[in-house]
Amino acid sequence: MGGKVEWPPVGSCVAHRGAAGTAPENTVVGAATAIRQGATIIEIDVQRTADGELIVFHDSRLGRTTDIADVLPDRARRMIGEMTVPELRKLDAGGWFDERYRGASVPTLAEMLDAVSGKATLFIELKWPERYPGIIGQLVEELRRCVGDALSGPDTPVAIQLVETDLLRELRDGLPEQVPLCLMTGLVPPLPVEEFPRLADWISGYVPLGRELEPGYIDRVHEYGVRVCPWTIDAPEAVDAMLRLGADGVITNYLPEVIPVMRGEASPLPRRPVRIEAADPGSETFVLRNVGDAPVALSGWSVRNQLMVRQFLPDRTLAPGEPLALPSASANYLDNYGENLALHDPADGVVDLHAYRLRTG
Q1: Superfamily per CATH, domain 274-355
Q2: Among 25, 35, 92, 137, which has the highest number of CB atoms less than 10 A from its own CB?
Q3: Tens digits of per-residue pLDDT, 194-228?
Q4: DSSP at 197
């Protein structure tokens, strides 16, 4: 078993799937946007196609973030592992987010590595590796082919996270010790601290669900030399909560809004003239309020949920001080795995970020 490096750097803001709050996730244009926003670490998701190519994509199926239902309707319910690269090349992976991104494609891992080379560290999560026999060895080979000697250099351009400890160990045996490996846990409570003695010698970081963390937990993990970088942290209150808990970094969809808070500066969010007052996943409703001094026409305003699905607000005017309760446009719009709701103005600027499931301990 090899050693490990200390990673991520303290104070890191990891760009979740690229600039997922402001550009289509897991695309080259999203990664380029994240770099312009100041990203030094970009998290992506990797799976394998039916013809054996490692590609960058999050979901099991393509319906949420591509136009497959229109372009290949007979393939719309197919899993990623049942699709070929030529089929994926027919799809648009940007227009769902905003028309200005139409033309973005589903990239291969090699294309993404090339796009961020020398600009940021690519933080790779293997999605459902059990579906893809041999993908650990294939990933090692692809990284060696694309990155070469830089893989074992002092500033290696990649890091990797996995949920499966045994597969993470397999990666540790196949990669230089300069490549940081992180254990991730999904929609579950954090890993018991008692598990870290067997991990401490070879994993650099731990990536838990932020809202499940409790006071004292991160301090105890730090005793084993493992850094903690929770996901997915967007609202300023959530960032502050993670800092109070001792987080070394955070994974976020909204770099421009989170980086200053991580530095101890005031949030740059306007939170005016309209802000999100509440959001309730149980009733699938959210409440906005005009906190300014003048009426606000809501035409063109929108909210985005954790999955970045956009819901436009009604075409009406909100008087100063007036609240507005609205139903979600679809079932599970708020009651998904996430906790964040974003408010965007007609120019798609981020006005407010609201964490509606945050536990502050």
Answers
A1: Lamin Tail domain (2.60.40.1260)
A2: 25
A3: 999 999 999 999 999 999 999 999 999 999 999 99
A4: G
HSE-up (13 A, CA, CB side) for residue 148: 3
Q: How far apart are CA 315 and CA 300, in angstroms?
A: 8
Domain boundaries, the chain: 12-262, 274-355
The secondary structure of the chain in percent helix, strand, coil, rounded to multiples of 5, reads 25, 25, 50
Asked if CATH classification 3.40.50.720 holds for the domain at 12-262, the reply, yes or no, is no
Q: Which amino acid is at 39?
A: A
Q: Which two tokens stand for residue 189?
A: 């409570």
In Å, how far from its chain's centre is CA 360?
Answer: 21
Per residue in 234-243, pLDDT (tens digit) is 999 999 999 9
How many C-beta neighbours within 10 Å does residue 243 have? 16
Instruction: List the structure tokens of 12.
Output: 């890191």
Tens of pLDDT, residue by residue over 163-187, are 999 999 999 999 999 999 999 999 9
Burial 4-24 (b: 16+ CB within 10 A, else e): bbebbeeebbbbbbbbbbbbb
The answer to whether the beta carbons of residues 322 and 290 sit under 8 Å apart is yes
227 touches 204 (CB < 8 A): yes
Length of the chain: 361
SS3 269: coil
pLDDT band at 1 (very low <50, low <70, confident <90, very high): very low
Find out whether 290 and 317 touch, Cβ atoms under 8 Å: no
What tokens does 303 get? 């909210």
Return d(Cα 51, Cα 305) in angstroms, integer. 33
Whether the Cβ atoms of residue 340 and residue 235 lie closer than 8 Å to each other: yes
- CA gap 304, 172 in Å, rounded: 38
Q: How far is CA 282 from CA 16, 326, 345, in A?
A: 26, 13, 26
Residues in contact with 197: Cβ distance below 8 Å, sequence separation at least 6, in sequence order: 224
